[in-house]
């Protein structure tokens, strides 16, 4: 009987188990077409994003082009110290954070509102298409073109805004060279340019909402505004969190092209950001190691903000980036 019981109930450890590597390979083969579609994107990041990280070691070297990356002498954290001890460091960091945070805080709500408005008029297809086209178009214009438009609007001598101010008996305002106005112009022009493009993700999420939820809310007597607050917004909460987290990762990128095209010496005190300083010191003065060190600093800050914000979002909003 003992022998029969032993034969009938073999040990669990005697059953061979599949290794994790084989399970992973089998799973990859099962979804091989999905991985094949991901391959171009993965190659792009591997070649143009992660590959150049090897060259980022010049941030810790006194890079000399004739010696190359490998031959340049190590100097440790000296480049970081130069940046942190710079006379303009606090001013640069303050300007960058103010402009970036203002773009984040005041830029996301208009995109959400536009997406909600477009979703509400989706039955009026002609009106919706015209509105979408008009709101998306500024995104495809370069900041040089936008700057030309701003000059036409805000020039103290021929600008439309100052012409209206002069007609009303006021004094023309030089918006683009006045420190008290410059940040407002930078933030507002960025919102105008990017709101339509930023609304695309929110609109896609709104169009995926089950119409039955709106119908049930309407039957219960909910007004259109109540349906937006209690049906539409909760359904796009995850997308709002995702977009916010992604933008937090680039919080120290205040928009180099925009600021570089718009700023001038009179507004350096409020408009000079980290990227414009790096351009002058790192590129024009050939301080490539310094520019790389500042880039690493910005990347580490962005990574830390994403990790912290993701944990906060998962704790209070119930969803995060990962």
UniProtKB/TrEMBL annotation:
Annotated TM spans: 33-51, 97-119, 140-161, 288-309
Show the Gene3D superfamilies listed in the entry: MetI-like
Entry keywords, A to Z: Cell membrane, Membrane, Transmembrane, Transmembrane helix, Transport
- One Pfam short name: BPD_transp_1
Q: Which InterPro entries match?
A: MetI-like (IPR000515), MetI-like_sf (IPR035906), UgpAE/MalFG_permease (IPR050809)
Q: Which SUPFAM superfamilies match?
A: MetI-like
Where it sits in the cell: the answer is: Cell membrane
Q: Where is the ABC transmembrane type-1 domain?
A: 93-309
Q: How does it sit in the membrane?
A: Multi-pass membrane protein
Q: Which family does it belong to?
A: Belongs to the binding-protein-dependent transport system permease family.
Query: By what name is this protein known?
Result: Protein lplB
Species of origin: Dictyobacter formicarum
The organism that produces this protein has a lineage beginning with: Bacteria, Bacillati, Chloroflexota, Ktedonobacteria, Ktedonobacterales
